[in-house]
Every structure is written in C-alpha cells, then in structure tokens.
Amino acid sequence: MNKFRFFIASILLLIPAVMFSQMKVSGTVTEAATGQPLPGVNIQIVGTTQGTTSDFDGNYQLENVKTGSVLEFSYIGFVTEQVKVATGTINMAMKEDAESLDEVVVIGYGTAKKSDLTGSVNMVSAKDFNQGSVTTAQNLITGKIAGVNVTAPSGAPGEGTAIRIRGISSISLSNDPLYVVDGLPLDSNGVGGSRNILDLINPNDIESMVVLKDASATAIYGSRAANGVIMITTKKGKDKDFTFNYGTKASFYHSYNTVDMMTAAEFRSVVNQIGSTAAKARLGSANTDWQKEIFNDAVGYDHDFSGVGSLLKVPVRFSLGYSNQDGILKTDNFSRTTASLSLTPSLLDEHLKFEINARGTEINNFFANTGAIGNAIRFDPTQSVYDVNSPFGGYFTWLNTAGDAQLNLAPTNPVALLELRKNTAFVERLIGNVKMDYKLHFFPDVVGTINVGMDKSKSKGRTVQSALMPTSDADWNGSLERYTNERSNKLLDAYFTYSKVLNDHDIKLAAGYSYQSLDSDNYNYDSEKMEDGNTYEFYDLEKEVMLSYFGRLNYAYKDKFNLTATLRADASSKLNPNDRWGYFPSAALAWNIHNEKFMANSKINELKLRIGYGEVGNVSDLDPYLFLTNYVGSESTAEYQFGNAFYQTYRPSPINTEIRWEIGRTLNFGLDFAAFDRRLSGAINVYNKETIDMIIPALIDPFTNFGNEIETNIGNMVNKGIELELSGILIQKEDLDWKLSYNISYNDNEITKMEFDQPWGGIDGGVGNNVQIMTEGQSPASFFVYQQVYDDAGKPIEGVYVDRNSDDVINNEDKYYYKDPYADILMGLNTSLKIKNFDLSVSARANVGNYMYDNIASSKAIPYDINAQAYLSNLHTDYFETGFQTFTETNFLSDHYVSDASFIKIDNVTFGMSFPEFLKKSDLRVFGSVQNVATFTKYTGLDPEIYGGIDNNFYPRPRTFTFGFNINF
Amino acid sequence: MKSIINKLLLLFAVTLFLTSCHKDLDQSPIDPDSFTEEDVFANPTEAKGALAKLYASLALTGQKGPAGSADIAGIDEGFSQYTRMLFNLNELTTDHAVVGWGDAGLQDLHGMYWSGGNDFSDAMYYRLAQEVSFCNSFIANAAALNADADVQSYIAEARFLRAFAYYNLMDLYANVPLVTELSTTLPTQSNRAEIFAFVEAELLAIKDILKESGANEYGRVDRVAAWALLSKLYINAETWIGTAKYTECITYSNLVMTSTYNLNLNDANGNGTAYDELFLADNDTNGAQDEFIFALNFDGLHSQTYGGSTFLTHAATGGSVPASMIGINGGWGGLRTTKNLVNQFAVDLDDMNTALGPQTDWGLVGSATPNGWGSVDDIEMFQTGTNTYAVYADLLSGEMKFRFNEDWGNNYGDDGANGTLEAGGANVAIGAAGTYYITMNLNNNTYTVTPFLSDKRGMFYSAGQSLEIEDIAQFSNGYAVTKFRNVNSNGTPGSDTSGNFTDTDLPMIRLAEIYLNYAEAVLRGGTGGSLTTAVAKINELRERAYGSTSGNVSSINLNFILDERSKELYWEGQRRTDLIRFGKFTTADYLWPFKGDAPAGAAVASFRNIFPLPPDAISVNPNLVQNTGY
Question: Among A278, A382, B15, B484, which residue has the least CB neighbours within 10 Å?
Fold first, then answer.
C-alpha cells in the first residue's frame, strides 16, 4: 500500500491554495502524444476576431480576455479544442487527429511516416486500446485489426494468447508472430513458470502496437517473420515538467459458464435404468454440482503509477505496476509487479541520442490444478465432496477393494485435486535495451545506430502434492517436484541509415547487422523418482545463435510514388552449414493517387494504391541439430537389464541432413483511402500468402534411417484473403463525438501440397483417435469423420454411418472431410461515443465458419463405465439425444459432434466519466466496464471460441466487471 | 592520415568481430543427454549401452520410461511396444483374445477387417525396420572395437536381433526390403524366400560366434537362441517358402533340447505346478530363467513401459478380477478370451466317467456330495473291473460314505480312517472342495480318494464374466486371463510399489516351444527324431501342467499339437502363426466368436494371412509393392 500513500501525499501537495480569474491569458501549446511544444497553433477567442498564434516554443499570450469567454485552439492535423477561460494560464495539449497522415509508425530498424508506408501495417496506439480488465498485452488489440485473430487459450488469469495473422501458415512449426519489444525480438519459447510470453510487460506501459501483416513489411525480420510481426513500443519520457498518473481498477470475475453434465437426479435415473445391481449400489445420496465446487467468482485488482517528465534535461518515464488476479478455478492466482524506467537523453547538439529502457518484472503464479476441470466433469454427482470415512483427508474417493488406495482409472475428487496440490512459480525477468543513434558530425545524412538488448529470466517453481492426495498408489506419501529455468536472450543490432532529399527524390537507405543468442538452462527435481531409486535430477541445456544482415531502400518521388525494397540474410545454428543461410527479399510500391493533379479538388483526402511482395522464413520451434548423428541416452526409468545390472541405452536419432528454411511468400495489393476531411477512412488489402517447403514431420524409410518420421520440407500451403477496414467519425461536435470502426476479413486456407496425410487433433476417447487431418487439397486441421445417419425423429442411430464408398463396410475409407476449425470470416466492430465528459465504448467481434468438435459430448455421453468399472462417472446430457452405449472408434469420430461454432461476441462495454481539472491541473477519469458481455452462437458446447476446434476440459472464460479510476497530476 | 589509420583499425576490428560471430553459428548439442558417435563407441563399456538399446527397443518404447521420448512416431507410445503389438497382431486376431476398447484400428484386428494403414500393423513394421537399422548401425560402428572378445559377442547378438526382426517381418509382412548395411539409398523389396534365406544364413553364421550355451548373462542371447530361432524358422518353412524343412527343424530342436536350458520344474510358490512361475514377477530368478532362451526384460522401476507385461497384466484385469491377485494397482478392463481357449482346458467329467466303464448302483452320499446326507440321488460309480468301481466327482468339503442303490441297507465307511472299508463304518472325511478320483475295491475292501489334478495352464477368471461373448465392448463378456502376474513366488508384489509397472519378463523363445516344434516336425515327417521322444517331451510339459502324470498321453497327432501349443503358449504371441501353419487362420475350418466380424465366426479372405505394408512406407519408398489384397 506504499504506492497508495505516496499518491495521497502527492495529491495534497498539489491542491491549489487560491483560484481566481485574470484578464491576461498565457500558456504553452504542446503535442499531446510527445509533449513537444507546438508552434503555429491558432488561438482564437470564439465570437471575436481576436487571436494569436503560438511561438516557436509553443508559448502564446492574449491580452484582455474576458473571464468566461471561450478560446479555440486549432492546428492542421490536430483536433480543434475549446476551453472556457477561468484562469490566466491555459496550457493546451493538442491531440492528433485520428488517422493523421503524419503519424510516425515504428517499422523494423527504423520508423516511417504513415504516408510513406508501402506495406500492410496497422498501428494501434494507447488511445485506441481495448479498455477494461486487460492484464495481457495481446488483448489490447483483440478485434481491432482486420485479419488478426486473437484467442486466449483459456480463462485462466494472466493467460497467454494465440495471435494468428492471416490464418495459419505452418503445421509443425510455430504460428505465433514475432514479438519485438523496443527493437528486441523475444525468444519464442516461453519462460518456465510463466503463463504468457508478454507477461513481462505491464499493458499500461505500452505506447503502441504495430502489426506488420504482409511479407513486404515483415521481410526485414527475415526468417522469423513468417507469421507477421508485432512491434511493441513502450512509453517514453518527455521534455517537460513532470506529470504523474495513477490508475487503479478492481475486477470481479464471474463464473457463469459450465459444461452441460447431468444433474444428480438425471444421472441417478440413468444408472437405475441401465445399471447392474452393483452399479446401482454405487450411487450416493448427495446432489453435488462438481463444477460449482471448483469454480467460483473471483476478484482482481490493479495499481499503476507512472511519471513522465524531464530530469536534468533527460526525458524520463518510470512506472510501477501491480496486478493481482484470482482465477475462477479455485486457488488459481496470478500476481505481477512491474517496474520500468526509460531514459531518452540527447547529447552533442542532438547528434547523439540514447534510448535506454529497463523493465523488471516479478511474477508469482499459483497454478490451480486444471486436472480438476476434467475430473469435475466426470465425477459422479450423487457423491458428496467429503466423506468422513475417506482415508484421503476426508475427500470422497473411489477406493480399491483393499480400501487403501484409489481405484485405478477412477476420477479423482476434483476438490482434493485443487486443495491438496500446490503448484507455485516465481519468475524474475529483466528486459532492457540501450539504443544509440549517432548522427555523424561530418556527414549528418548518415545516422549510425547500435541497439544492445537483453532479456534475462529466472524462474523457480515447485509442485507439492499432499500425502493425502487420492492416488491409486497404495504407498503414496506425497511428492515434490522443483524446477529452475534460466533463459537469456542477447541481441546486438548495428545499422546505419542514410537519408537524402534531392529535388523530387527522397532516398533513405538502411543497412545493418544483427546477432542474437538464446540460451536456456533447465533443472528439474522429482522426489518420486528419487524414492524409486531412479535419476531424480535432470538438466536440459540449449543454445541457439542467429546472425543476420539486412538492408532497406526507401525511395519517394514527388510524394507520389514510394518504393521500399528490403533484403535480409539470416543464419541459424539449428541448421546444417550448407543450408544455414536464408535470403529473404521484398519489394513494395505505393502510388499516392491523391497527390496527383487530377485529384486536387476532390473530396478524397487520401487514395493510395499499394503492391508488395516479400519472402520470409520460419524455423521457430524446429528441433535443433537434425543434421547431426545424435545419440539420446535413456533415463533411468528406461534402462535395460543384463544380468543383475541395469544399463543406460543409447539411441541414434533420425537424421535429416537437408532440412532448410520454411519459406513464406506474400503478394499483397492494398488501397488506403480517406475522404470527407478524413471523416471516413479505411483500407482494403488482398493477399496471397504461400508457404513453401513447409516443414512437416514426414515419414521416412525406417530401414535406412533411425526412425519412421522426421521434420522435412515437404509441403505447401496457401492463404488467400481480403481485408477491409473502415473507420468513420460519425459525429464530431463540440460536446459530441461518435466514432465507429469496422473490419472484416475473409481468409481461405488450403494445403496445396502434402506428400503424407498427417493425423491431427488427438481427442479424448480411445487412444490414437484423431478427429482432424492435414491433407492436400483441404484446409489445415479439417475434421475427418464418419457421416452419422439419423432416424426420422432426427436422433442419431448408433453405429450407423453413411457408407460413402458403397463397399458395404464402414471403415476408414468412409471418412470424409468436413469443415475446419478456422473461421472464414472475422469481423470486428468498435465504437466510441463521447458526450461532454462522458464516454462510452463498445467492442464486438464475430467469427463465421469456424467449426468445433465437442469432445465432452463425444467421450462423456457414453455410459460404458457404469457397468464396466467399479466406479461411476457422470454423463454429458448429449446422452439424452444420442443414447449411444458403446465406445467405438466410429462413435468418437461421428460428425454428429462437429458443429458450426460461428459466433458474435460483445467483448467489452466501457463507460467512463472524466473530470478535467478535477483538482487544479489534475484530470480524473472514472470508469466501469464489462468484458465478455454476451455471446451469440448456435454452438451448444461450452464456448464457441476454443483455439484448435476441440472442446474438451476448457477453462471457462469469466465475465468480468471492472471499476476503476485514473488521475493525472 | 591518423584518422585513416583509425578508420582502418576500426574496420579491422569490425571484421574480426563479425568473423568471430560467424563461428558462433557452429553450435553443437550441449544437453547432457546427448551423445555423439565417438562417445558411444569410445570403448566396449560404452558400446554395451548401444547394444542394450537393441534389446530395449523390443521391450521398451523410448528413452524415457514409461513414455516421453518415443522411438516410433505417429502412434501412442505405449501402443508401439513390440510385445504389445505382437499380442495385437498374433493373439488378438485369433480365438485367444478379444479387447473392449475403441482405440483407432484396434477392433479391426479381432474382427479381421483391418485395412492397409492399421495403426498397429504399421507401427510394428516401423518398430522392426527401425530395429534393423539400429542393428546395422551397431554392427558397422562396433566393428572398430572388434578386437575385444566381448564386442565380438555384441556384434553376433546384434546380428541375432536383426535376424529376429526379419523373422518377425517375414511372418507378418512377408515381402519387405532386405537391408543389411547402413545406407541412405532406398532399398528394393525382397520376397519372403529371400528374407528366409537371409535369416537362415545369418543364424547359421553366428551360431558358433555367440557364446556357449548358458555362458552369457541373463537377458542376452547365446548360441542356443540361434538354434531355437532356426527351429522356429524351419517349422514354418513349408508355409513360408513352400519347402519343408522338418528334418532341419529336428536337428536344431535337438541341439536346443540337449543344451543347458531346462524346463522349469521348480514350483516356487507351491501351488501345485511349476508352469505359472514362468509368468511371475521374479521369473528372472525363480527358476523360470533356465527355460528362457530369449526373454525380454521388464522392471517396474527401471524399465517402464505401457507395453510388455505391464500391458498384459493391466489390460487383462477388469470386472471383479482382484488387482492385488495380479500384483497391480488396478486394471484397464480390456482383454478377455473366447470360449474356444477356455474349452481347451475344460474337463468333461461325464466323458471321463463313461470311459471308466458301465455305470453301477454303487454311489457316494454325504455332506460332501451336492445332495447331502438326505440324498435320494447318489453320485453313481462306474465299474472298472470285477468288484472295482471308480468315479470322477466334484466334492465339497465334508463327509461321505459309499452305499448301494440309495439304500442304507448296504453301505461302507472307514473306521479308523485307514483306507479299509467297513460295512456301516465311519464317515470318510473330504478335506477341501474339489474334483476327486474315488475308487472302491470290494475284493479287498479298500478305497482311495485322490484329488483329480487338471491342466493348471488354463488360468481364467470367471466370476462375473460370461463364457459367451455377445458384446465385445463389455468387459464381462468372455473370461478374463490371469496368466501374467506381477507377483513374486513368495506372494509379494513387484518392485514398483505404486502397482503401475511390472517386473515380469516375457519369454520370446522358451524351451517348451522347442519341444512342441520337435514333436510337430516329427509328426510332419522330419527325420532324425522319434515319436517316442516327442511323446515323452510332450508328457514333460503335461506333467508340469497337471502337477502329476494324470494328464499324460500315449499318442499324439497334429491336431493334438495345435491344441497343445494353444494351451502351453497362449498369449505369448504365437497363435496366428500356428493357425496359419495349420491352415485355420482365415479359413472356415476353424471358427471362433467374432472371427471375420460375425458373432459365430466366419472365414475371411486368405490374403489376411499376411498384413499389409504400411501405405506410408510405400509412398516413401516407391520400390515397394503392397501385399496382394490390400
């Protein structure tokens, strides 16, 4: 609470003693985004001709101003502001007009004006971020950008997020975009004990997120940019007096969504109907909703304090943040403390600029045992949670005949799973970079840049399971597992940029070199292995080095044509020396039609036609050293007995001496437009994104290699799509401002070459059953299922499927490709309305054409266990629809369980109220928001939005209510 | 000038820096679990770890027990274990087993409707082919250490294991590539005869390099294994290559039978037979090891897998089978057997009694009989000679007397329990309930009550199980099999106290099988053996099975051999091969429940005598042609 005390003290200090009016008004006009003074701003007393303009330092002065009159500040490219005169000092921070052409966008190894962009690049800056309870950076842009799908894998607190830009482009390698934080590309491997690659960043510290979508924009990141690049720029200090911001919010997470399992009464009646005498005797007398026992409403809160200003002429920003969030799964908790410092000094008459960022994060995770979810779904609702006779801490347990252990394979009491296991992790992470720009004194057209970055993390975790935990091990006496995980990511970038304007020709050249190394060092300890006399300490070490050269040419002619060409050469130590280097070129051309003479008098402010082509690569997640003959030693649980001794064995690994980069090629056509004084703006992009030499675990001849499968470049895939973004200012009046933006994208994803089908999407129910397939000519992860036959009443007939090849046998050859889990159409809608000091924003999303396999219904609606096992397990209510009785491969793979999961979700509604000059210079904003407001779908399972398309033991997303305030001073 | 020098120096420094960075790209594995070829073949001690893998890849599934670093991709790791797949392909496809699970491709096996691309037949092919390339690599790399006598044996063992892999490939898939050296060239396909010739030549070549009989350590093979595999090869020669080699079979079976290996006759747990010891947790020390010519070793703590004996014990346990009896923590409720196997062991007392002689009015009465003392329907005896009577009867614990025509007027008991009958004498005590052979001799007024010992090889669990199978998915349909147990001879469970993983080793070739091969080869016309020896050897097996000579036979024929193999070797991975050799696997000659996916059993097309090559293996190697019918 120290932060809070500091905050109160600060407020008291700033309360002004006296407030009175004065006839002479003066002040400084600054640019809100940067804090830089803004010269040449028109300042007019409304209703008069009296006015002035701000000077070079942004200062202005007006004599003889009547108290109560209104000053209007206007400047091209900025929002016009009006202020009622109350005091003699009126400072104005001018906000940039939305979609201003002069907006500066961070691109790889440099920046560009938005007007000069030639690729498909979207920037979302802080003012447009999603509001409400956002603890993960990825969620700031959910639904904001066409073609960018953001799906959280679960409702767990602090959970990471799968971002897919323009569909999936790889099968066995990563589909995650590259995240670049202040120029430092993050290691795509997560940090042990951490839930999210981006949880090192307090979302409040982010100034903007730039999404590079097409290869002409991403190619500067070469081999790592196959899935797009997300560039995160953090907030920086400003050359002005210190201002501070404090924000806090409290969130309430409501658990509202559970799987439709039978109630105790329903289950009892089914068992009585079909169960044997023994089965009926197992029924208990309780009525337990196990899902209610493990999920509850939860709370979270968040404090954030930051200061921006200049200290000894050095612009400084610092921030402190603290988040604490409980999960709706009992015992789940995430807490994070962040501290950041940014210094941006300039020396030698602005010739030498430094950007120093340092960010420390401490995360404490208490991971709830998510195994409780599946067990709560299965657990017999007629049993009570507690049983005084249970030898397992009083938790009801299905016991074996000896009564000393849990019956093998029986579900475990989910409450015991939660309460008797402690899985904690403590993560310390330090990420920082020093960037130095030196504008050569003797040749000021050239700027040399060196960026040195480091991302170091250290995690410690432990899992303790109580001796009272129900297990089928009669000698169970509890267990302890510990691990440490150290990762280190070091970066050195060195590049120069040359800029020259020669008459109508504007040339920028950049060329440079990049070195990055990624080290990881894991240690594991397992007490159970120790008790068994096996090796109980494990070490796992890895190092990867990447080396790159890159160059870029930007050429502009008369503001009409822009050309960008890039080339990057990348090498990775993972690959064999002969195929190690990959070369990734790109070129893009833009024509600013609106700058042509014939457009001079039109209502169209911007019309830019773009065409770009680029190649990028991917080896993220590829196993290293596939080209070497490696032997893997066996662990002490896989030794072999000769005589009376056990021997460690050595296995040669399969070899692929020819593994190469997976290549992505994108051709993109784009049209950016703005009209009616930029009240309407938008973009259309059409793309064809091809992945060639796609790396897939391919079958190999086992007689001539050391296995039957190895990662090989054997496939091709294509994503084709069209994206439209529209944003409009519907009303812009003095006290009323209404903006609406909408995006829609269509993506068609198809595997165009695949030598071997890859079974995909392993399911619960039987072993080795896969409900999806990767096959040539189909979308990736297409469902591959039997076609269910239904009776006249629409009820599926057990074991009856369409004999699609008419050979009178139902076997593998009767399966067919039926839909896929990826949405064909994504839509996002964002609107914000400001009336005086009130603001309201709503964001909604829709996915169309995404299909889902309900694995709970398929595997938990078959009453096999009732008579086959010495325990009972609950049934899904789909049993009332199907009445299926036996577990067969065909039942699991029936298309009955695959259904359309298209949805419309209202993600967020935020309502805020601002109190400008709440206390003298302090602005206060109070807000409330609801997240995950409503979902409209025909899908009957838990949630239509589950990444991968298989609904099974999903951690439900809560509905979140957040209240908070934010104060500037 | 100075500035130029400075600039040049700078350039030089930069170049140096970049060069050193380029070298940084040459990383090599730094993980402590990773080894290079130089490490592994540095000396004979290390090479033994590579040899261990050649054995382990038939017992385990990868480098992390029980799972986590699989040898075979594309299938559940536990499913990819060699003996588990051997069970699925060679036992589950026959009258010996059914399984209740709905795993991909599993029901297809008993139903005999598997397609090309069956998970199990594919993975078995990959496992065996991988074993071949592991062996080839070992043989090539270990050659450098060949000066060492141990390494010479290692190499010969590797050649044995490669021959064993090819023996399996030939049995299951018939036409596979023959690869005997490390190479990256896609191999051509060989036919069954070529594989046969290779296996035969290899075994003949190594039989004198392998260690002397009994000279190797437990778990590793000696030359007897080569002879035994030759015996197995030759008994099938007529089926596989169309040339009978029964004489050769007899030759090598003879060598095996006269080696240091012995039939285990040590009834370590004292239950009346030394047969079950072969499948107990301590079968590496309880005497069974003397019978194991080639066994795969398991250990609950150090050699963990979801296949092997862990599979055979857990999968066969379900219903009310007490897990503690099997020595595990609980069952997976999957495997049972059909009535065909159970009936092999069934004893029909009526038939046996009828064989004794004509039924008489002499009978047994008492609390030890089902009808009790108040019986009006005694257990009638059969006349075996003048005034001699006998009967096989199921008796309860209690007392009984002999009487004539259900009338107390003429009855005998035994005063003083001395074996002599007295008219109206005292009741005869019957200790434990069971089947007894009772004789009465009125010539000298004596009687005998001896427990009738049946074939103890039939280890079934019937409580709560039905003999008939109506629904394969239900565990209660069909008897459970309790042959494999993770219990030591002294009754304690195996080393993994959690009861997850078992210690029980699995014999791949044991002496009893060679006895049966010998007898069969003799019956099929091989020379160099004798029917008398064959019968004697069969009787050795039966004496162990019955715990007495009561089951001995005086003559044998081929059908008897097939049945005897079923009883001796069931669930040991031999049945399909045997049925094929006897022409009964696919034909209508012999049916069992759900053969051909028909409840009463039906014939299937004969192409199913061999399994398909994995379709993916054919697409990888266009030299391969799929087996006919698939």
Answer: B15
